[in-house]
């Protein structure tokens, strides 16, 4: 059934992209601003990416951050440069985000012509194009209406929250002009997203012998969080778990599975267990057939191409395991259609005034939040970006 659905959606995407579009000459575009962490497109950009990342207290809180962040970035740069070299000379996340945005907006012009033309903008937090650069482009394009669309399916203050904080700072400073904003802040259980992930898992399962297929362990791997963030009430762990449960419901709970965490940085306590340790533990228990599923990433980048594909695959093979990774969403037509459907429904509901600029859930700060910018940002977006 899933293969037929994927074929149908693929044909639908191609057909809709070629339909006649109404004349929209001179109309200000509706900006769909795709928020993400980003990654260095070339190896020489690695230091700046790392410095920006370690400077972000929303993601990695550090004492004396302005002093320590550049030092940590400088120390880690040679190792991370080698990793980017090993995956082809840079991160492909910009390429895939632009591809997804272009496909989404082609469909949006047909799905919701009232707000056409729709134009995608990429706003990365730590790599080019940075939010500041995107803000300047939007102002030059005369944008008056924009949707901040997080590309993290599950919400965390350290990811989506940090990107929204940066967007708020640029907006409050007047760098984007006068724009009416609304926000898509989470979508980790949307049926189209779940279907795209499930289809990729089914494709990975097909690589195993049919007689052993039902015993394959599905390891959903998500980027970990510092326990200091989790313990202040961040919803990320709950929302990733909800995505995993929805995928397994779609798969009919056909296989045993676990949710594990990757990409821990630094000596402080982070969410566990770590993906690498889980692989070793499964091998010790005699579970030698495993699928790795990047459940919190919407396209390939260093965490999938290096950490999952090179590091963990090597460890698994050394332990005598058969490991395969479910493909990232990348150019999946099912996923691109999901992005368009999410945005079209948001635009319809916002135009009908059945929703406000932000979701009910986005309005609630973490119970342990002490970040004043977070509170100001939520208030600003709840007023559609009006001061």
TrEMBL record:
<keyword id="KW-0999">Mitochondrion inner membrane</keyword>
<keyword id="KW-0809">Transit peptide</keyword>
<keyword id="KW-0496">Mitochondrion</keyword>
<keyword id="KW-0472">Membrane</keyword>
<dbReference type="InterPro" id="IPR019772">
    <property type="entry name" value="Ferrochelatase_AS"/>
</dbReference>
<protein>
    <recommendedName>
        <fullName>Ferrochelatase</fullName>
        <ecNumber>4.98.1.1</ecNumber>
    </recommendedName>
</protein>
<dbReference type="GO" id="GO:0006783">
    <property type="term" value="P:heme biosynthetic process"/>
</dbReference>
<dbReference type="GO" id="GO:0004325">
    <property type="term" value="F:ferrochelatase activity"/>
</dbReference>
<dbReference type="InterPro" id="IPR033659">
    <property type="entry name" value="Ferrochelatase_N"/>
</dbReference>
<dbReference type="Pfam" id="PF00762">
    <property type="entry name" value="Ferrochelatase"/>
</dbReference>
<comment type="function">
    <text>Catalyzes the ferrous insertion into protoporphyrin IX.</text>
</comment>
<comment type="similarity">
    <text>Belongs to the ferrochelatase family.</text>
</comment>
<comment type="pathway">
    <text>Porphyrin-containing compound metabolism; protoheme biosynthesis; protoheme from protoporphyrin-IX: step 1/1.</text>
</comment>
<dbReference type="InterPro" id="IPR033644">
    <property type="entry name" value="Ferrochelatase_C"/>
</dbReference>
<keyword id="KW-0408">Iron</keyword>
<keyword id="KW-0456">Lyase</keyword>
<keyword id="KW-0350">Heme biosynthesis</keyword>
<dbReference type="InterPro" id="IPR001015">
    <property type="entry name" value="Ferrochelatase"/>
</dbReference>
<keyword id="KW-0627">Porphyrin biosynthesis</keyword>
<dbReference type="GO" id="GO:0005743">
    <property type="term" value="C:mitochondrial inner membrane"/>
</dbReference>
């Amino acid at each position: 059934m899933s293969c037929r659905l994927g074929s149908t959606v693929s044909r639908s995407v191609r057909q809709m992209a070629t339909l006649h579009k109404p004349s929209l000459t001179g109309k200000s575009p509706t900006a769909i601003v795709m928020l993400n962490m980003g990654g260095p497109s070339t190896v020489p950009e690695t230091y700046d990416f790392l410095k920006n990342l370690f400077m972000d207290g929303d993601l990695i809180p550090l004492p004396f951050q302005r002093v320590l962040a550049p030092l940590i970035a400088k120390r880690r740069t040679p190792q991370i440069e080698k990793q980017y070299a090993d995956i082809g000379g840079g991160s492909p996340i910009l390429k895939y985000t632009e591809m997804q945005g272009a496909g989404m907006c082609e469909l949006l012009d047909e799905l919701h012509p009232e707000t056409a033309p729709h134009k995608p903008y990429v706003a990365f937090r730590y790599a080019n194009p940075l939010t500041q650069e995107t803000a300047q482009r939007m102002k030059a394009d005369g944008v008056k209406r924009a949707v901040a669309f997080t590309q993290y399916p599950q919400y965390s203050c350290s990811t989506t929250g940090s990107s929204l904080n940066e967007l708020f700072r640029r907006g409050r400073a007047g760098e984007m002009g006068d724009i009416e904003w609304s926000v898509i802040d989470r979508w980790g259980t949307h049926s189209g997203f779940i279907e795209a992930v499930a289809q990729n898992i089914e494709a990975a399962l097909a690589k195993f012998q049919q007689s052993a297929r039902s015993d394959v362990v599905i390891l959903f791997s998500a980027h970990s969080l510092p326990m200091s963030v989790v313990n202040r009430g961040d919803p990320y762990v709950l929302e990733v778990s909800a995505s995993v449960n929805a995928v397994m419901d779609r798969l009919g709970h056909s296989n045993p599975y676990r949710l594990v965490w990757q990409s821990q940085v630094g000596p402080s306590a982070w969410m566990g267990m770590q993906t690498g340790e889980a692989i070793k533990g499964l091998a010790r228990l005699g579970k030698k057939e495993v699928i790795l599923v990047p459940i919190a990433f919407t396209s390939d980048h260093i965490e999938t191409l290096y950490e999952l594909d090179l590091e963990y695959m090597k460890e698994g093979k050394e332990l005598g395991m058969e490991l395969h990774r479910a493909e990232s969403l990348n150019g999946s037509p099912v996923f691109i259609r999901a992005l368009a459907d999410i945005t079209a429904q948001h635009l319809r509901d916002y135009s009908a005034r059945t929703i406000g600029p932000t979701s009910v859930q986005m309005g609630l700060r973490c119970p342990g939040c002490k970040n004043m910018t977070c509170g100001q940002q939520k208030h600003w977006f709840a007023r559609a970006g009006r001061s």
